[in-house]
Design a protein that fits this description.
Helix content: 55-70%
Number of domains: 2
Number of strands: 3
Order of helices and strands: HHEEEHHHHHHHHH
Structural class: mainly alpha
Strand content: 5-15%
Distance between the termini: 86 Å
Number of helices: 11
Largest sheet: 3 strands, antiparallel
Radius of gyration: 35 Å
């Protein structure tokens, strides 16, 4: 789907996916009444405008250049069965005319096109509408500067004046403003993409909580241990998942960064969020088993109630801090008996080892006798 289009020849190629019998943006640009140019009447232009809106959606805002054939429209239409509103920006301009004034102007327009496509992929809802309105303003500003310079040059040629220096100052100032605004909009696009991904991540947390409840219920039904220990294991699973959810909620409420990738898609982001409570519950269960096995050097209270509180607390900490839980699990692994001993190279012999000791530096003054 082409939303922002730049053509060097406006009438050369119709819009992508456009029905030749329908009105396109090229028709509107050619029929726009311009002073001193052969164009259609205002009545014809209004008729084409109504037909264009029937085909492409309601026009929220529009701009047509007065001194050369260029235009941009911001449309809104309802898509799908639920009638969701989708906003689009369509633009046509003669690339050689814009580049002749200043190549950076065309670069700014293509950067705006790239940002518009980026918002289509990773931003939705009201933030996307706001960003498109801002992008539309930047595009209109750039085309308006080119249009005004074209009009000034035509007037100056008729009067025999030289406006080169004035045009250079206007171009320099316009480029500075356009670049600054596009940089600010790019930052807003990135922030909006992260917020959109974060919403799907939180939705995944809710779905992961449901999966965690199913996991805890299944754990309680499977007779793996004694009834008391099975209840403690269920509490550990629930406490670990709760700790994971609380950790994410604290980060979001404090404005801290949550690692989400807005480019991986809404489904994958939601799936990643659903993993978080499940991982917390599994880590909580793992630490419970390690405590019961005596692999973690922590004294378990003799009273069952006190032990249950301890297991739930450790499981909550495991879900709250996954890194701490992983480090604890790694440190609890039993080391082999030869782990602390230095390995002997496969090609070494006792004779070669003793020879090495004899050939040592000044510190190796005391030599041990060889064993024959």
């Amino acid at each position: 789907m082409t939303l922002l289009e730049g053509r060097t020849e406006l009438s050369a190629v119709p819009e992508q996916g456009h029905d030749p019998e329908c009105v396109c943006l090229d028709d509107l640009i050619r029929m726009y009444p311009r002073k001193g140019q052969t164009a259609g009447s205002s009545a014809d232009f209004k008729r084409l405008l109504r037909e264009y809106q029937e085909a492409e959606g309601e026009i929220v805002d529009k701009y047509f250049a007065k001194h050369f054939e260029a235009g941009v429209v911001h449309t809104r239409r309802r898509d799908g069965l639920v009638g969701r509103k989708s906003y689009r920006i369509r633009m046509k301009y003669p690339g050689e005319k814009v580049a002749a004034v200043q190549p950076e102007f065309e670069a700014a327009l293509w950067r705006a096109r790239s940002m518009e496509q980026q918002t289509t992929l990773i931003v939705s809802g009201r933030p996307r509408r706001m960003l498109l309105e801002m992008l539309f303003s930047v595009v209109v500003y750039v085309l308006g500067v080119v249009d005004s310079l074209e009009g000034v040059q035509k007037t100056a040629q008729q009067d025999g004046q030289d406006v080169t220096e004035h045009s250079r100052l206007c171009i320099r100032k316009a480029l500075r403003i356009a670049r600054s605004e596009l940089a600010r909009l790019q930052q807003l696009v990135n922030e909006a993409a992260i917020r959109s991904a974060l919403r799907h991540y939180v939705l995944g947390l809710f779905l992961g909580g449901i999966a965690l409840l199913a996991l805890a219920w299944t754990t309680g039904r499977v007779p793996m241990f004694e009834p008391t220990r099975t209840q403690d294991l269920v509490r550990a699973v629930a406490a670990g998942g709760l700790g994971a959810v609380i950790s994410v909620m604290i980060r979001i409420s404090h404005g801290q960064r949550v690692d989400v990738d807005p480019t991986q898609g809404n489904s994958m982001t939601c799936l990643a969020g659903s993993f978080r409570p499940v991982i917390g519950g599994v880590l909580g269960a793992a630490l419970y088993v390690l405590l019961q096995a005596g692999l973690i050097p922590l004294e378990i209270p003799a009273q069952p109630d006190d032990a249950s509180y301890l297991f739930a607390a450790i499981a909550f900490l495991a879900g709250f801090s996954e890194r701490w839980a992983q480090d604890t699990i790694v440190r609890s692994l039993p080391l082999p008996a030869t782990a602390s001993a230095s390995p002997v190279p496969s090609g070494s012999t006792p004779d070669s080892a003793s020879t090495t000791e004899e050939d040592a530096g000044p510190r190796g003054r005391t030599k041990r006798p060889r064993v024959r």
